[in-house]
Amino acid sequence: MTLLATVIIFGLLIFIHELGHFIVAKRAGVYVEEFSLGMGPKIVSRQKGETLYSLRALPIGGFVRMGGMESDLEVPEGQGFNDKTVLARMSVIFAGPLMNFILAVILFVVVFMVLGVPSDANVVGRVLPDKPAAEAGLMAGDRITAVDGQKVTNWMDLVRIIHNKADQEISLSIVRNGDEREFTAVPQLDPEYNVGLIGIEQSWERHGLFGAIWLGLEQSYEITKLILVGFIQTFTGQIEAEVSGPVGIYSLVGQAMKFGFGTLLNFTALLSLNLGLINLFPIPALDGSRLVFLGFEGLRGRPLDPDKENMIHLIGFALLMMLIIVITYNDIAKLLG
């Protein structure tokens, strides 16, 4: 299941990215030779109009091959990629990363609307089986108003008190269906975090469409900002670089699946933001470098030598492949201990 989920996630992120390039290229009147999901040998393909739609064997990438960009195929006059204005070409290139940002927002919106977000209310959302709370008789929906006589009005206060009561009997004052009740429980010591736990989870709060959209935009902005800060701190040597390739992501997907579908969706959104942001870096073979070249062309009033530019992208692609191989080796070494 982890392998299947990883393939689906990679496929979705790549498909959405390339779909952005494809849609804007079509809207700009660019001749699109092929829209491919995956790399390597073709598994299935279908010709529709000028474009070949294909699914390839290796789910590690994808591409939109546009006439007049990197191929020698003759295209109708004015429909080649390089025949378009600088602004139109920049729009085509930028559309890929933009779609990854849009996908992340959509995934966050789905989570906030369907699953909700953790509430800070002092209400039990779920009682874990065979834990002190379950043995004491607590139920989902109970509002805990006091612990050992100390009033609690939110989840953080409740957790703070219970964490400090490991292996000590505590009294819990709750309200259930309007009735006040008293329970006793002994929090178990969690050896990993050295805190007391009774086996309850907080409730979740769902949001409406517009509230979820606002939260989705806010979440995407905050995470993007954190990613940028992390990159800056890594490049300046403030923190140690932690990079994961396909194997490392496979492992992280497996961990996310253990916490449920909502966590998996959040993780997918995080990956989508990373993919969109990294593609905007001015690294040869990535969208960011193409935007830089187009920016120079706009300032100079004439394009750079296409052969030289393509050679730079080719070298950059080869270096990226080498980097992925090194990262994959390290990921495998970590998994093997």
UniProtKB/TrEMBL annotation:
Chain ranges passing through the membrane: 92-117, 259-281, 311-329
GO cellular component labels: membrane
Keyword check for Protease: yes
PANTHER family: MEMBRANE METALLOPROTEASE ARASP2, CHLOROPLASTIC-RELATED, REGULATOR OF SIGMA-E PROTEASE RSEP
Enzyme class: hydrolase
Keyword field: Hydrolase, Membrane, Metal-binding, Metalloprotease, Protease, Transmembrane, Transmembrane helix, Zinc
Top-rank lineage group of the source organism: Bacteria
Protein name in the entry: Zinc metalloprotease
Cofactor requirement: Zn(2+)
Bilayer topology term: Multi-pass membrane protein
One Gene Ontology biological process: proteolysis
SUPFAM superfamilies documented for this protein: PDZ domain-like
Subcellular location: Membrane
Ranges for domain PDZ: 115-154
Keyword Zinc attached: yes
EC number: 3.4.24.-
Organism listed in the record: Metallumcola ferriviriculae
GO molecular function: metal ion binding; metalloendopeptidase activity
Family: Belongs to the peptidase M50B family.
